[in-house]
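Before anything else, study the sequence and fold tokens given here and see whether the fold suits the sequence. Record follows:
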Amino acid sequence: MGVCWRMLLQKLLVWTATITLMSLVAGAMPGWAAEQPPPAGTGAGPQVPPPFLLPEVQVTATRGEKETYETPQRVDIIEQQVIERTFPFHLNDALQRLPNVSFGSSGANPNYWERAPTIRGLGLQHVKVMSDGMALTAQGIGYGGGHLSLFDPHAVDRVEVVRGPVSVLYGTDAIGGVINVFQRRPTRREEFRVEPTVASSYDSTWNLWREKMQLDLGGGPFAMVMGADFTNAGDVRTPGSRMPFTAFHERNAYVTADYWFDASKRFTLRGQLFQGRDIEISRDTSFRTVFPPFVPPGITVPLEFSFPAYDRSLLAADLDLQDLGPQWRALKITASVQQTKREFARQTPVILPPPPPFPLVVRSFQVLTDDRTTSWDLTGQSTHRLFGRHTITWGTDLGLDQSHLPEIESQVNIATRQVVVRTDRTRARADQRRLGIFGQDEIDLEPLVLTLGTRWDGFQVEDDLAHRTRYARGFSGAVSLLWHALPQLHPYVNVASGFRVPDLGERFQDTVFSIFRPVRTIGNPDLSPERSYHGELGLKTKGDWWSGEAALFWDEVHDFIGTRVVVPARTGVAEVDQFTNFGVVHLYGYEALLTVRPFTLRDDLLRGLEVFGNVGKTFTRNKASVRAPGVQSVLGAAYTLSPSSGPVDTYRGEFSVRLSEGVLDETQPVTSFRKYLGYAVADMGLQVKLRPWGMLQRASLNLAFKNLFDSRFRVPYFSSVQPGRGVAAGISIAF
């Protein structure tokens, strides 16, 4: 611990000395002593969006650029500047401050690294995680839903979170919402130029070092940005101690290259590579005290879970054409291939009943999976303006998912450490073909905007193990009405219906998971697709000194998919769980957010003050099937100061408190941890940005103080204690 703090102190001293020296030298330079003009295209004044200020443009909710106040859905956008200031462990840390967004375990083993998002009470396979509009390949085969640990925070331009079903645009898995992660884009320049960026950060909570290198280059019709990121994390610090066996290592690389045929036609190549190594989940050897006299004295019974390797790669090509004719607004075609490879290692104790009259035997079950999934996608989308009032968007999505999920299970004698039984099995090997056709008509009835949308999806799934083929098809639809009542006031209402096809894991998997006793989970090829019905009434408002949103929502999901026990555990017989349709699940709730800059119109020091907050809650009548978090809110204030001269462009300080009420987990089967207490967690951040000077284009120093009062708490529904107090610091310099 002392070494980590000394290393952090040394880096802080170096950074502080560097920026102080630059400030002193620059202050003596006439080019920096005077007020600097803002870079071209940025406008005057500080470009620092507040955490919950209504963003200007979104893409995900309408599958095309549109200002958020013209979008009849709740949309949250997390910009790169916010990610840079808050030092998220992964992107889920940045998103969990949003109302009705939470992160729980994505599998049977709660762990900090792999957590799945939940939006308005619907999680796992009900929330579609996307990369620049393309769904993650792992989600379609049942990895417990998409998760955000596979994205490098440094490589992200922004994250868009759309609430409610957007199945009419994105198809299956989107009935709870969509999280769309956008990769950094290059800067287009008239003359060729190379802009290198280096960044370094440290987070004491995770003993985490993250180093980044990036090149943004190009000129004329060509522009490219490429970068690499290296992360090494130790065991996470919780209040009072370090949580053992939670370390990990990551390597990330990304590239985006644009070629502009003219101002309205662009071809883009995108590539992403993520490599996770030695990702530790949990380890415990204390179970030796549970089994006497079955375990000889001095012999330990290990319990261990880890990902030795977790890789994700993506290669995509986009053709984006705008203004093709008087009525033909846009055409976009995207082709992509992505692959996820995952090794999952687990070591668990199991009690085996031997033939009488011998006593019970304890063995260690060691399992290593070697999963591989590949997805091929081709999408096309066209937008037309017809009859003066109609903006019609239509398109098609084609896809192929290929999965192969083998594993090796070894039963090891605890005393001799020798392998007694070795079993090679394949949990699933299947192909899924997808076809989606969608259309949407936005009708301008000023001051009203009526939007009608529909989508048809068809699936063909082939199980290569059982030699079975299944088909599924269904329609989604949505109707929304947006009223521009005043320039600052935009109420809306929308109703929608979507459906979700069971993933390959829910249909075909055959998995044995053993802790003390084996539990077999099998798929159900006869599952029915889930059908959702949604209603939302909302309001968006934006003025010179305020911005806010509020919404009431209601969701109903029919044929909800979960697991049930089909063969109870008994002597000599393992428990068997199977996926099944449970009936109807109801969810409803509210959310609101507001940012106020009360002194924006004044020309004094108070101008930079802003106050922000949000609140949300999801209710359910089906507590045995779904988990609805209690009231969650964020309250905070920030202050931005922009000196008229000198090397510093902006100073920014921020203080916020996250609040949550306690909840009781009543889902079945009963979990080992059920009661989650309420909590309050305070965070504080500081940022200094420098003006361009000489070769220096941008520089920023960031400090974040997390969990200031070292509160001990658990977030619903994640049973591990959350990280304790810590300090994060980082510096970023672009030349």
Summary: The first strand starts at residue 57 and ends at 58.
